[in-house]
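Morning, I've got a small favour to ask if you have a moment. I'm working through a protein record and want to make sense of it properly. The fold is given in discrete form, as structure tokens running alongside the sequence. Can you walk me through what the tokens say about the fold? Thanks so much in advance, here it is:
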Amino acid sequence: MFVAAGRTGGLAAIDFYKVLIGHLTITGSTLRSRSIVEKGRICAELEKTVWPLFGSEGLSAMVQRTFPLEAAADAHRLMESSQHIGKIVLMP
């Protein structure tokens, strides 16, 4: 068990065994220490270079498999198996 500082100074317990067996990644970041001007520059660059990629062929999610909603239990089993690489999608 590992204890990490939370965003408001609180504590969180993390079971790293689950992180390891699930091949998970933990990432943290904050813009709190950046100036308003720097935050504005970051937002402008994001709007210019990243947002246009959404909805185009430039940025898309990797989908491993889709399931009909009625097969949600099967989708959940696949997720729990950690045998997928992309997203698991439930369709109506």
DSSP finds three helices and four strands in the chain. Residues 61-92 form one domain. Residues 1-7 have pLDDT under 50 and may be disordered.
